[in-house]
Amino acid sequence: xxxxxxxxxRCYIRAKDDNKPHLMSCVFSEHATxxxxxxxxxxxxxxxxxGRDEITKTLVRDFNKTYENIYTFCLNDTxxxxxxxxxxxxxxxxSEKLSGSIRVGYGNYKWRFSNDNSYxxxxxxxxxxxxxxLSSSEEGQILSWVSSLPYPCLPSSDVLNSMPGxxxxxxxxxxxxx
Length: 178
Known about the structure:
The protein is an alpha+beta fold. Helix content is 31%, strand content 37%. A hairpin with a 5-residue loop joins strand 5 (85-96) and strand 6.
């Protein structure tokens, strides 16, 4: 993966997961576009957002009002890089602040970078394939697992080989790899 692109993606994940909105100016161009394809009823996002400030509001400020303990991972063995684009699968684990429930989700990122070698993101499409909601009683085991993984990029085999034996979670890779 191109190091400048990797740095932009790492900066995005840090901004989103660690509630650091100021970092989004290192990732997105001022007039960037965010498109969301949500294929589950377990989470809700606007289908389109225009401009870095609105993207920051949606993906960092508003998201962090609802969720904490956020771990987003890019699966580096799924990366497809062409010219100024990069696609990869991702998965996320987070806890909902109000209920304490754990959410485990996966999908795809489709990044389009500017043509001027600045490596700012002009367009990001986030496909959310599925989000499972697990009981708050699973929090310790799930968060211990994800906090032990290489962050934020790793091969999918690291995820699958270390996954805890929680029944609903062990069904997930079958859906994920289809």
